[in-house]
Design goal:
Blueprint (H helix, E strand, L loop, with lengths): L2 E5 L2 E4 L4 E8 L9 E7 L6 E6 L5 E3 L7 E6 L4 E6 L8 E8 L18 E2 L3 E6 L1
Parallel strand pairs: 2-11
Antiparallel strand pairs: 1-3, 3-8, 4-5, 4-9, 5-6, 7-8, 9-10, 9-11
């Protein structure tokens, strides 16, 4: 099993920044073999992929956050991060981190489709106000 716990959410004004963290634990998989992703879900909307990072550090971003968000990982600490800058009201959502245990078998890439991820955190709320 893999346990994930997000932190770092909060309320911020337009243009502000937040850094989300996700602590990963469990003894079934090595963290440095997992692909990791950040997702978000706004009220009344589907959960959407924001960014992912594969097990060797290759990243991918949704168009809506490219240039503003940065995903990173610290394999020594089993931690995943999402630095969010230039926040907009439309970034308001519950943010979730997720783990893909087949990361090392994905051909050197990662995916932001929900179906690739077997393990999810409980989420952390981000609210951006104007």
């Amino acid at each position: 099993q893999v346990q994930l716990e997000e932190s770092g959410g909060g309320s911020v004004q337009v243009g502000g920044s937040l850094r989300l963290s996700c602590e990963v634990s469990g003894d079934t998989y090595r963290f440095d073999r997992l692909n990791m992703g950040w997702f978000r879900q706004a009220p009344g909307k589907e959960r959407e992929g924001v960014a992912c990072i594969n097990w060797i550090g290759r990243t991918y971003y949704a168009d809506s956050v490219t240039g503003r968000f940065t995903i990173s990982r610290d394999n020594a600490k089993n931690m995943l991060y999402l630095q969010m800058n230039s926040l907009k009201p439309e970034d308001t959502a519950m943010y979730y981190c997720a783990a893909d245990p087949l990361g090392a078998h994905r051909g050197g890439t990662c995916y932001t489709g929900r179906g690739y991820y077997n393990y999810w955190g409980q989420g952390t709320q981000v609210t951006v106000s104007s």
